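Page 42, continued from yesterday. The earlier attempt failed because a stray header line got pasted into the input along with the sequence. Redoing it now with the clean sequence only.
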Amino acid sequence: MWNRACDPFAPFTHPGDAALAALLLCHGMAMNGGLLHAVEGLEIEQRERAVAGYRLLGLDAAADAVEDVARQAAALDEDDLAAAERLEEEANRRYDAALPEWDETIDRAFREHLRRHPEQYAPLGD
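This time it went through. Structure tokens are written below.
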């Protein structure tokens, strides 16, 4: 299911699969360039779906970090480089605290959600 969620062409017929895919897109961007990079690089709808995905899996602190950083980034004065650097550091600190083991934290939350709500995921092979 994790691999299916990483397929950009997969048709998501179940809400759990779609939520996991959105979360993993944001998470991958955060791992590569930091949370500020992720929230600035995602379209608004992608970011909203990622937040919903974090919340679906019970990762509310990560969802809150994404929302807060997006709100703060939108309010930044683009000429204030020091403020942008401070926000980037704070964003990464919050994301690290929300997901202390990054992939492993997400994997555990996903497996628990799958165990409790298998109907939200397409069966393997579909």
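Notes: Residues 15-120 form one domain.
Reminder to self: strip header lines before submitting.
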